[in-house]
Amino acid sequence: MRLRLAVLAVAVLACGRGEDGGSSSIPPPSHALSVQVSGDGTVTSAPAGIDCGKTCTATFTGPVTLTATSAAGSTFSGWDGACSGTDGCTVAMSVDASVRATFRAGTMPPGQSRAVRVAVQGSGRVVSAPDGIDCGARCSAQFADGTSVTLEARADQGWAFKSWSGACSGSSLCSLKLTSDAEVTATFQPEPPPPADICDGLMPGSLPQPVVATMPNSDCWGGTSDDGTGNFALSYQIGPGPVYPVWQFFTIKDGAVVRIGETVLGGDETGTVVWSQPSGFTVYQVSGGSGASNLTFYTHEGQRTSSSPLTSAFMGGGYASAAAGLDPSGGIAATRNYRSGNDTVSEFARFSKTGAVETEWVPISRGASYMGAVGIALSGHALVLENLLGRWHGRWLDRDGSALSEWFEVSGTTIPDFHFLMDGSLVMRSVVQHEYKLRFEDAKASTSDLPEWLRQRSVNQFSVVRFGKGYASWGDAGSCPGKLEVLATSGKSCGCLEVPSLSRLASIGRDGSLMVPRTQKDFAELDRFFPPQMQPGRPSCVDGCNLA
Q1: Out of 1.10.3470, 1.20.1530, 2.40.128, 2.130.10, which CATH number does the structure's domain 199-534 have?
Q2: Residue 395's pLDDT is what?
Q3: pTM above 0.90, yes or no
């Protein structure tokens, strides 16, 4: 039998995504830029980060302009790689990139120079690198022929930079390779007034027409999408009994669902969690039989790139435990626990969104019974939970595993799971009880009460939406029982949406993708005998997953 999943994808809460509904606190994906210099000269970047020969590799989240400066007795002859020619080099940084700058021996005739003249329309100023122009005050300057000059527009308060005209265009930095005189105009415009209502731009007017993905063999059990372009992963079950989950990757093309990438196989004794990274996916699996656990990293198109074992089967001669959590900005933090002689060792590690090791395994404690959960705040700080003699204890760690707080006791939950909030804190949910219980302020060795808006909706599902500009909540509590409620990050309710077949299996990504399985399964009877994390294929939390 082929059953189907209604995928209300991409446009649901992304409606009006380009409008100014408030600024997001979630950093965009970063990419690495590497520079090589051949010959006698240097390359610098705007924004700062590259100063090659000293620093030739850095990561950036947006466009980067490179400036080549010849040493005495040398002349810049051109770019290779992500740029070409001898004009300015601006790299979009939508992927990792490399650039080579070549300098040749020999100089231009002495005394030859080029003029740069700047005009400003509106209220703001323009400054140059190298120094020479600071317009309003100094709006023209002479530079040696062949010099690379970067102009930066800085708006006055209440104004915004609009665009360049003349020798430059667009709204990013203006890069000039001076082989002739150049004239540039910078245009500034008044900033629009702030929105009258914090909910402006958050609430879509209506649901778009559903896009339907057909799953093989069985009902869809939910999915995840968080990367901003509408690629997503969906799961279903196969096997004659016992059954086990399978995950597949999809995209939407020309209004239809298209299968992409590889297949992720679960197991009847294996817990599987699939996270959507800001650009890509990560699969976390734990074997219930042996304690072996593993992270597998996939591209945005669902192609596997690397794998990192966290624990091996019966590590240290016993049953090892592990936990992992997703960084809202991309990447994974993980803990593990295993026997070493007469001791029990707990360790911490960090991985990038592509699987590269950022922090090697470092010890964080000794004597814990098992690792329980990992949560990561917007700052990148990780909160780890371990169970010691039946009692939960937490500690905040920096990216390198160094302690930011003392260990402190955490009570009131079983099988904990973390979710980040846009105020920088974490909240903890009991997976068995389906309820949010406690709040943790960044790096503080204590717990606090839930914010009022979440306390009123503690038994609901909720997700960060519109890339951090709001929340979505659904369940039996709140101002919209049985419907999808959109809230500002302050907790103000912005309205309700009627969503067909809305249930606990629904999933909403930060990119606005709303996935609703077309199934009428009732889990009440199943929950009486098995908690959700033990149900194969169930979109549940295993050892500290984060389903935001």
Answers
A1: 2.130.10
A2: 95
A3: no
